[in-house]
Every structure is written in structure tokens, then in C-alpha cells.
UniProtKB/TrEMBL annotation:
PROSITE patterns: C2. InterPro entries: C2_dom, C2_domain_sf, MACPF, Perforin-1_pore-forming. The keyword Signal applies. One of its GO terms (biological process) is defense response to virus. It comes from Chiloscyllium punctatum (Brownbanded bambooshark). This is C2 domain-containing protein. It comes from the Eukaryota. Keywords: Signal.
Amino acid sequence: RSMGNHRKVYQAFSDRETEVTGGRARQGVDLFFSGDGSAFGRWTGSLLTRPGLVRYALAPLHHLLPSGDPRQKTLRHYISDYIAGNVLGQKCGAGPRCPHGSYPDPRQPCSCLCRADSYVDRNCCSKMKGLGRLVVTIKEGRDLWGDVFSGTDGYVVVKYGQAQARTRTISNNNNPRWNAKLDLGQVKAESGHKLTIEVWDQDVVKRDDLL
């Protein structure tokens, strides 16, 4: 259909909304439908230094091979070695202080490994929900009252479910410092279990007293 001044409908109603990601583009310049192609050329050239990310997806390289291909495991191993060998160095001093039961990874000095068993895998991750090693640190006691004519012969008992452990006895001291780590081993977090910490006074003549 013709309109006045020899214009067509598409010329009169040419509003468009264009969203440009990346590159350098001047506001108000039509990159895609302009009669001058130089603006589009300048924009595509600027993408080399100012690229725009539209979408992305990350996947390990060894997934390029089918899951049943025996080479997939080998490729994963060598890629891990390459990453460990070329990663930026981390200063871990003399190595990480790995938790009880683990040891420093010889290939990644800032990481720890575990000996896989029925409870944890090689990366020290629990194989079951709520399962883990329970270690309780007992530091000190203050103003204990165990004996009338002498100081307290104190020790501490820690219980969780059926697991329990105790500190050594510190004799004749109402302010003992145990500084002990009590390892209760592998336990499973259950709603009915409570962590109980008891302080006892040892007595060689009669029964020990719970303070």
C-alpha cells in the first residue's frame, strides 16, 4: 500500500528493538538493517576484545567419550594430573593440617585424602547421610569440688549413643587442664542421641562421684 510522499507501509512503521551483547556499538545506530554496513563491520571487529557471553555450559572433557568407553577413565586421570601440575601455586606452609584419619594429598599439597572404607570415600566424604567421625576436645575445668580435704581427682567422660571415651585423671587439682581430644569414632547422627559430657571425681576407696 502506498502512502504520502511515496513511502511504503514498512518504511513508515520501521520501529525495531535490538539487544546487543558484547562489542562496542553506538546508541541509536542500526547495526543490522542500516544501508551503511560499516557500523556492523566495526561492531564485529570490536567483539575480539569485548566479547559478549550469550549462554554457556560446562562439562568435563572426558565426557566427550561414551560412558562405556574404557578410555574415558584414562582421559579423566590424565586431565586431573595436568590440572594439578599447572594450577597456580598455593602456599600451604608445611602442608595442611589434615583431620584425624586423613593425610596430605601428594599431588595436591593443600588437600587431604582418606583411606576409603565402609564409612568414607577417598575424598573423605561420608557414604551415608548423617555419618561421620566425632571428635570432642576437652580443654579444662574450673572450681571443681570433689574432695573436702584435698583437690579433685578429675576426669571427663563423653558419651554419644553407645560410643564413649574418657580423659586421663588429673589428681589433686580443682582447675585441671586436660587439653585432650576424645575420638568417639564413626557415629551416625540420630534424633534420639544426645552428646553428654560428664565430669567425675575419682575415688580409690568408694565409688567415683559425678560432679
